[in-house]
Amino acid sequence: MSSFFESDSPSNLAEYSVSELSGSIKRTVEQAFDQVRVRGEISGYRGPHSSGHAYFALKDDKARIDAVIWKGTMSRLKFRPEEGMEVIATGKVTTFPGSSKYQIVIETLEPAGAGALMALIEERKRKLGAEGLFDATRKRPLPYMPKIIGVITSPTGAVIRDIQHRISDRFPVHVIVWPVRVQGEGSGNEVAAAIEGFNSFSSGGLIARPDLLIVARGGGSLEDLWSFNDEAVVRAAANSQIPLISAVGHETDWTLIDYASDQRAPTPTGAAEMAVPVKADLEAAVSALSARLKSAVGRQMDNRRQSVRALTRALPSLDQLLALPRRRFDEASAGLGRGLQMNTANKRRSFERTAAHLRPDMLSTRINERRQKVGERMIRAERIIERLLQRSVSRISSADAALRTLPARLLSQIHRSQDRLSGLSGRADSALLADLRRRRSTVTAHDRILQSLSYENVLKRGYALVRDETGAIVKSASALSVNQTINIQFADDTINAVTTEGSAPPPAQPAKKRTEKPPAVAPPKQGSLF
């Protein structure tokens, strides 16, 4: 009995380790659910991880399953997953032994139906419309004749060729193409970056700033055009400072960028027709306007010519203009002789009337009258002189009396003036002495400053002053030439010298006593002012 109870296991079940059991479950699940299609709503989507993989969950009203999209599959998706989107995922179910969880590895992902995508578009349209991105007041008019057009599209499709061909046929202008992907993961960001990139160009930069932008793509399904419903693309189109034409899909295809753009074109070719006018039509219109202008100018000249002729006929002739002045001149010239004769006769009669009054008896009478008046005035003058003499005598008598008392007053005033003059003289002497002392101290201070700034004190410290033949001071060796006579002034004497080429100074030689030394002439010094 004891050996029976000591057996290894009370049953016949096989024993597994945790790793073996997890691996067996993993293989069983992968074999049973190798290829499945799951419909559900995306939950917990936060975009691709830094590694490029995307982790989220699919759920319905009763259950939830983890999901993963590997980096390689993520780049092949036709549209970008979004939170709350209902999708159909195709892949295989596997387990993660590390946490005893199962998940679906998604290989393809598609919307659960057009209805779901349209509902998402409508929701996004209401959201962006509430922000005012679709308002008509934000839209700018297209330039009538742009010089540079920027096109944002795929460089390998037929769209860019159609646009270039149509622009070349209508009105050839410079076209700049910004290549982007027009579908798939990340295509929306590329389109938005291209719109912002064109807007960042400056007018004077290496690449000229376009006058008009065209965002174009060929037709396709709703999933193919999904990038142009991206919120980043719509915001970039609404914020573009350059007028923008959206030409996405065919005429019946509508995306959110069509509402945010300044103009929607039914097709890429239609966008090219909107962008530029027809050159031939413009030339024909210019020719017609030129012909009309010439005809109008001709008619205007004819009308002005007829007006001038009518005015000319209305003007009087030269003879008519001069007839009245000529008659006045003739009348004036005819009356001039008679006027001179009448003036002479009048002057003669006036002279005769004046001469009739000049008789000798009349002159004698006037002389007697004037003599009588002069006698009367002499009598009055004598009387006036007598009165003036009497007044003068009285004045002199009063003045004589005043002068007799004047010496005493003058002596007192002279004594007072002498005392005041003595006081002022003393104050003037003291003020003069103080001013002299102040001026002497000022001059002494200036003399000390002058002596301290004198170049002769500098020469006493071992320096020398060099002058050329003209007596000008030499400030640098470059100002001298070879064999030039110079004058060198030391503190005690002045010598003459001749310049040589620059070299090292010669060794010191014992000073030789000069046999003849000219008497030193002391430079003149400023004498004392006192």
Note the topology.
Elements: H1 2-5, H2 18-32, E1 36-43, E2 54-59, E3 64-69, H3 71-74, E4 86-96, E5 101-111, H4 114-130, E6 148-153, H5 158-170, E7 174-179, H6 187-200, E8 212-217, H7 231-238, E9 244-248, H8 256-260, E10 263-264, H9 268-275, H10 279-314, H11 318-356, H12 360-404, H13 406-453, H14 455-460, E11 465-467, E12 485-489, E13 494-498
Parallel strand pairs: 3-5, 6-7, 6-8, 8-9, 9-10
Antiparallel strand pairs: 1-2, 1-4, 2-3, 4-5, 11-12, 12-13
Helix pairs in contact: 5-9, 6-7
What's a concise summary of this model?
The chain is an alpha/beta fold and 530 residues long.
**Quick one: how many beta strands?**
13
Q: Termini, distance in Å?
A: 153 Å
Q: What is the global morphology?
A: elongated
Q: What about the largest sheet?
A: 5 strands, mixed, barrel
Identify low-pLDDT runs: 1-7, 510-522, 524-530
Radius of gyration: 63 Å
Q: Which structural category fits the helices and strands?
A: alpha/beta
- Strand line-up of the largest beta sheet: 1-2-3-5-4
Summed over residues and divided by their number, the pLDDT gives a mean of 83
Oligomer: single chain
**Roughly how much helix do the residues carry, as a percent range?**
40-55%
List the total number of helices.
14
Order of helices and strands: HHEEEHEEHEHEHEHEHEHHHHHHEEE
Classify the beta-strand content into a percent band: 15-25%
